[in-house]
Amino acid sequence: xxxxxxxxxxxxxxxxxxxxxxxxxxxxxxxxxxxxxxxxxxxxxxxxxxxxxxxxxxxxxxxxxxxxxxxxxxxxxxxxxxxxxxxxxxxxxxxxxxxxxxxxxxxxxxxxxxxxxxxxxxxxxxxxxxxxxxxxxxxxxxxxxxxxxxxxxxxxxxxxxxxxxxxxxxxxxxxxxxxxxxxxxxxxxxxxxxxxxxxxxxxxxxxxxxxxxxxxxxxxxxxxxxxxxxxx
Length: 232
Prior knowledge:
mainly alpha
């Protein structure tokens, strides 16, 4: 009689909207300073404005967005110094997570990391930034979940909420795409470390990836400031 029935998704609409927006920020689908209006998001998500408004308030409390007086929200804009500090913290914590993952990772978890890496490679070949950002986030968090640390994962996720928008190219041109796509050596090193169960190699791959990104952003801000000075 009940053979055709299956499990019911009891996740509330508000929770699903929150998770969708949070994942979009983590993947870098929004740019620093980008405005998010409740009405526009509701139209895209096919919901009323209330669950969107609630999601933005939750993300504001977590530091992922800034709520504006007109009930819209905006992605934070970080200074060069703030970005440098963020990456310094991240490379230490995410390096630790990679170290733990190399010791504790299971075969199905390793397969998830390998699949995400393959997705990044394919996205690079197809010059698909959105797919690359999605699989990049999946690659990193598959590693961090494999660390099986109750404390580390939520802290790293909170840092990614602040830094996720930095992954979205905020200047146009091929050099930005090159920066997004040139971390394969570091990713490959991290994956090899996990495969070999080599904590030092896994950590080094993650640290090198983040350190390269930190240097790139520092250079970008320096160039931007020089351009503004010349304009004046």
